[in-house]
Amino acid sequence: TLKVEHDPELVDAETIGQMLTDELTNNSHDRQQLHKWTVKLLHDGAVEGLTLPVLAETAKDDTNSNLVDHMGICSGIISVVSGMPPVLIKACHTVRRFQFDANCMMVTAAFGALALGEYDEAASVAFLFAISEWLEAQATGKARKALGEIVSLRPEYAH
């Protein structure tokens, strides 16, 4: 993939895309190489009106692409279904008390990503939050153990 950075005030993305397409068709000696590449224009929603010309390799086999897509969808759903129940339970208890905490945000983020079709993002949220919960439990356990040891040092009688 080739991404072209340009100043949109001097030349627009459509012109660069057309130039790349012309260059490919005029200077390609191997017709198989020509059909291997496509020029696309990507629109960036984060920046108003930003369009990037991109030269990308055409997918060779749609069946493999579909298989990878389905595997990504399945792994994202499995990650959320296996990682979110404890968080969902905590979020439900918090919402019943009319509060909103990190558990609620993580449930919202994971299921929102699923609803938007961003299965890899949903899996990332579930995985990273599960790791953070585990690290928090480890730290809490160590802190309780240390406090227990401090409390056991107190004298039985004060003089």
How would you explain this protein's 3D organization?
This protein is mainly alpha-helical. It contains six helices and three strands; from the N terminus they run E-H-H-E-E-H-H-H-H. It has helices at 13-27, 31-36, 62-83, 85-96, 102-115, 119-152, and strands at 2-3, 37-44, 50-57. The chain has a three-stranded antiparallel sheet. Strand 2 and strand 3 (50-57) form a beta hairpin. Helix 3 runs parallel beside helix 6 (119-152) and helix 4 packs across helix 5 (102-115). The termini are far apart. The model has no long low-confidence stretch (mean pLDDT 77).
Map the helices and strands:
Elements: E1 2-3, H1 13-27, H2 31-36, E2 37-44, E3 50-57, H3 62-83, H4 85-96, H5 102-115, H6 119-152
Antiparallel strand pairs: 1-3, 2-3
Concise account of the structure shown:
The protein has 159 residues and is mainly alpha-helical. 65% of the residues lie in helices and 11% in strands. A hairpin with a 5-residue loop joins strand 2 and strand 3.
The coarse silhouette is elongated
The main β sheet shows up as: 3 strands, antiparallel
Mean pLDDT: 77
Q: Spell the H/E element sequence.
A: EHHEEHHHH
